[in-house]
Records
---
Amino acid sequence: MNQEHPFRKGRGAQINVPNRFFAHSQETLDDFLNYCALEGDDPDDNKTQFLEVFPKTIVNKVDSPDVGMGYSMNVYQGCEHGCIYCYARNSHEYWGYSAGLDFERRILVKKNAPQLLEEKLKSKNWTAHPIVMSGNTDCYQPAERQFQITRQCLEIFLKYKHPVGIITKNALVLRDLDLLKTLAKENLVGVNVSITSTNERTRLLLEPRTATIHKRLEAVRILSENGIPVNVMLAPIIPGINSHEILPLAKAAADAGALSIAHTVVRLNGAIGEIFTDWIQKAMPDRADKVLNQIKACHGGSLNDSQWGQRMRGEGEFAQMIKSQMNLAKKKFFAGRSFPVLNTNLHAPCKDGQLRLF
């Protein structure tokens, strides 16, 4: 480890990279760092800031055929979980921030999300279609403990009997078990829990501020026992880091009660390639070259592939091995199980906000 630039514990990204939309960028020179050291000043306190923003809409149409959702909503932009591989990092540049450390330290909070969602669901032009919370950033990230925006939105979905999907890697989802159970009784909710490793050391490096693997599997178990359908996302699979864990992860998910599993192969799009490369050279220097080369082998010699239909699955020998292991895992551990299609038939009579019985 480079002592001049020590590894930042509790963060995924170790650097801020230039914003591609800015004509100019800035960097901190060693002269300034040396001056701060002499003066006893900290040039970077590494604290998280919560900044309120005021969007005009909250539901987004998803055009990509790769992600399995038609509509999504994100009540937070940026994510304190700090997952080093997160594809959503690039979206922070649209807000004027870096995809690196800024993404996990500058969290944009949409406090008006519940009101915007209610307006959308009451619209005469809206026809019920599952809306996925966390299409971009985790709706149960640490900020949710303070702001409780996700819970308020679930109350709106319940009020209007509208189907909702959830993607998270935080056991905080269990806080809202009361709402989820009520929604599940009418097949209005499905939860996707992301689990990327069975090894806590690996989890801490990849996803420093997420719930532990034990807590996530416990969340899968409790949700399943309460009749809430759960799909486990083994995502992303990173060759040389967690690709050897597919079968153990699948078995753990099945034993916890998950109805299905899915996967993606890591792709380091946009600024993430530089961020991930810097991170792995600091976090796993002994295997950095091996991992980067195997990722490239999954994407035609590049760290990223933007082709729809292929970018999430990869190509080549390593990608095929991952696919084969996933197919085996599904046959071995998930035979006879299936994730339900959510109910879209109850919403129309509830547009006025009244839960009609007849």
---
Amino acid sequence: MSQQLNRSRSCSFSDVDELMGTVQLAVHIPTFLLGLLLNVLAIRGFSTFLKKRWPNYAATSIYMINLAVFDLLLVLSLPFKMAMSNVWAPHPSVCTFVECVYFVSMYGSVFTICFISLDRFLVIRYPFLVSHLRSPRKIFGICCTIWVLVWAGSTPIYSFHGKVEKYTCFHNMSDGTWSPQVFFPLEVFGFLLPLGVMGFCSSRSIHILVRRQGLTEDCVQQKACIWTIAASLAVFVVSFLPVHLGFFLQFLVRNGFIVECRAKQNISLFLQLSMCFSNINCCLDVFCYYFVIKEFRTDIMAHQPSRVQLVRQDTMTSRI
């Protein structure tokens, strides 16, 4: 047993860290540039809808702006994450702040996407009952609550490194960070619960819309809505499922369930790769923005009078 413990402590991760340094450069730089551009454009686009189409598209626009702000925050944290992951932390408070911003933006996106999915399901399933619940003020209040919750939930980050003297940001976490008291609430409330809510709402919404396709005239709008829901669910699963699987595997490592050096190295590589590629989520959300804007424009065109109707209206007006 003591020999296994000694081998575990002497297990080197230098090759993994060296490889990840190259991967981060290849992934984070394009993600930063593209994510910065796309999310600024998204905020600008939905702000325009919010101003010009108030209050018809206010609820969805506020949610989308909130999601874009979280994604933009994650994008802005990437250069600091990339730089500070490879050097000793200059000061604990600086490292804590960067880690807070990164994880707050990640879980802020998780909860915002979850509420968007829930909101859309309620509108599709109970359109008349929830109309009074979707006022701009209430949606804005929900978004503010998300910000409060994710910042309050970031308190364990302040003790990520415990009493470790030398460490790099996002590495060398203390044993307390991987304790069941910290890990399981994070895994359940930060991912599994939102995943369950989103999976249920998305599947039910798509089922309802598919059944309605032959019964209503707005077939194009319904197809756009289906693509929006499917894209949101796909982006969510691809972005966050591997990361939280990696967290679970690392939890097993840090609590002594996995002690073989090669397995620990592979798990460390998988976790860092999944976190690295999950950052692309801030660019993948653009597909959700695209389908939502397309849905908005389809709905606007559907409610605009045709040229024939305008000519008839002008004719009637001139006669009067």
